[in-house]
């Protein structure tokens, strides 16, 4: 049944691609196109028709029985940006590019190589997700987490084989709020539920995240100045604007604080003239419009099980507006609980000027956690892949921090294979993520021999 459905979907997608303006005459062989194992809608509560759109790709080459193969969940940021950006531009099994024509290419760095990978359009109102009324769109992280919890549990119930699989929640940018929020909610809920009803959360990973805005917003001036992008006078101007944002946060004037942060970023954009603050080395911005073009096709929507009457947008203004007052609220305290009860990975592409390395270090070192001094004292190790510098890894206990070389805000888009190695080794506790206590020469080598 399932394979018939998936073959049909495969056929449909191939046919449809043929008619897209960017279609490349030479299509990849059908057998290499991993379509979603499952996709469609998950309910977010028992009483309304609101629903979260998902695409799920099970592991391509699992190294364990499926019942023990980890599930990785991906949440895009925004607020209000669709996880289909992550799916089709970053870590999914196919990536879009437009080399004269729009085409899908197998992604060698896909995060579903050995894990199941679930993309959720979160919160409702985002991407293909459905909000039955605008009032139901979350305005705070508690409501975001409540919907996510319901959706994730509904997903697990779709297949008896999902129940026993460990779950890792990952995401990028504004998901630096969502990921801790759902992780924290799961820990609280699990404490009230029997083991069989809970969610088998083992870790959370945040890429270039906004998590503790009050400290992060204060780092842009220094970060840009020491990168040589602004001069001393501009640094002073930017610092003044940053202080205004901090002041508004301290006053609890949340909406104005969000506006003040936007002013800081706009100033930085004007001063530097960069193509994008997401990556100071880029000559052109990331190509979100490729995903828009692909998902505007009615046939593609049908094949993916999305509601065809929804016009997909990369980021929803309605959702962005709903969460406007939430933007500057910190969820650092949630990470502080998560690091005691599960693993936490914070990773950043080195070239990001919005939520980059300096911005993360600023709040990381203020974490209230018994291991923080040991983490701060831990060696920052040079990470190499096939002899080339891939970045830096610092780890102590449940906390890992990775700086990814040659990447901006969308790490898996820029360094797909290295990002895959990072997530796999972190989940499986291999290579530089092996536990100190257990590390010995034979157990610390990675399965693929990529670490040197
Ligand atoms: C928020 O800040 C703005 C700008 O400083 C000010 O006009 C407004 O009165 C403040 N609102 C509240 C509720 O303090
Ligand atoms: C599809 O989306 C439209 C517009 O949001 C909505 O009115 C309709 O109820 C949805 N259809 C289904 C089957 O959910
Ligand atoms: C690390 O997380 C595990 C659960 O994965 C937990 O049992 C342990 O207590 C945590 N360690 C510390 C030092 O907080």
From TrEMBL:
Any one Gene Ontology BP term: proteolysis
Record keyword Aminoacyl-tRNA synthetase present: no
Highest taxon listed in the record's lineage: Eukaryota
Major localization class: secreted
Gene Ontology molecular function, alphabetical: serine-type carboxypeptidase activity
Keywords recorded for this protein, A-Z: Carboxypeptidase, Glycoprotein, Hydrolase, Protease, Secreted, Signal
InterPro entries: AB_hydrolase_fold, Peptidase_S10, Ser_caboxypep_his_AS, Ser_caboxypep_ser_AS
Pfam families xref list: Peptidase_S10
Keyword Protease on entry: yes
Cellular location(s): Secreted
Coiled-coil ranges from the UniProt annotation: none
Any one annotated GO CC term: extracellular region
Leader sequence segment: 1-25
Record-listed E.C. numbers: 3.4.16.-
Family stated for the protein in its record: Belongs to the peptidase S10 family.
Protein name listed in UniProt: Carboxypeptidase
Organism: Vitis vinifera
Gene field: SCPL50_0
């Amino acid at each position: 049944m399932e394979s018939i459905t998936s073959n049909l979907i495969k056929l449909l997608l191939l046919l449809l691609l043929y008619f897209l303006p960017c279609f490349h005459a030479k299509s990849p062989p059908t057998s290499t196109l991993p379509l979603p194992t499952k996709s469609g809608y998950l309910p977010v509560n028992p009483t309304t028709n609101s629903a979260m759109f998902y695409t799920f790709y099970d592991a391509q080459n699992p190294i364990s029985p499926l019942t023990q193969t980890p599930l990785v969940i991906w949440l895009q940021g925004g607020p209000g940006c669709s996880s289909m950006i992550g799916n089709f531009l970053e870590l999914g099994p196919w990536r879009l590019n437009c080399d004269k024509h729009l085409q899908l290419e197998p992604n060698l760095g896909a995060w579903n190589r050995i894990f199941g990978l679930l993309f959720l359009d979160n919160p409702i109102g985002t991407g293909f997700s459905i909000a039955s009324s605008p009032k139901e769109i979350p305005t705070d992280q508690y409501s975001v987490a409540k919907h996510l919890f319901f959706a994730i549990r509904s997903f697990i119930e779709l297949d008896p084989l999902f129940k026993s699989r460990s779950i890792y929640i990952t995401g990028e940018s504004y998901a630096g709020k969502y990921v801790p929020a759902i992780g924290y909610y799961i820990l609280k809920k699990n404490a009230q539920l029997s083991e069989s009803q809970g969610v088998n959360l083992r870790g959370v990973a945040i890429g270039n995240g906004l998590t503790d805005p009050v400290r992060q917003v204060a780092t842009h001036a220094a970060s840009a100045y020491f990168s040589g992008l602004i001069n001393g006078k501009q640094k002073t101007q930017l610092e003044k604007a940053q202080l205004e944002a901090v002041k508004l946060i301290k006053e609890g004037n949340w909406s104005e604080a969000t506006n003040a942060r936007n002013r800081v970023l706009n100033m930085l954009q004007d001063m530097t003239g960069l193509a994008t603050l997401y990556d100071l080395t880029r000559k052109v911005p990331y190509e979100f419009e490729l995903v828009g073009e692909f998902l505007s096709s009615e046939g593609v929507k049908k094949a993916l099980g999305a509601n065809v009457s929804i016009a997909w947008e990369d980021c929803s203004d309605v959702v962005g507006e709903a969460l406007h007052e939430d933007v500057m609220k910190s969820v650092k305290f949630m990470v502080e609980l998560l690091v005691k009860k599960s693993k936490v990975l914070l990773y950043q592409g080195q070239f990001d000027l919005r939520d980059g390395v300096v911005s993360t270090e600023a709040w990381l070192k203020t974490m209230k956690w018994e291991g923080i001094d040991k983490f701060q004292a831990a060696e920052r190790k040079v990470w190499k892949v096939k002899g080339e510098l891939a970045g830096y890894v610092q780890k102590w206990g449940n906390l890992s921090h990775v700086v990814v070389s040659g990447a901006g805000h969308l790490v898996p888009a820029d360094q797909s294979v290295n990002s895959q190695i990072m997530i796999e080794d972190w989940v499986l506790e291999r290579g530089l993520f092996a536990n100190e206590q257990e590390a010995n020469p034979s157990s610390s080598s990675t399965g693929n021999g990529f670490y040197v």
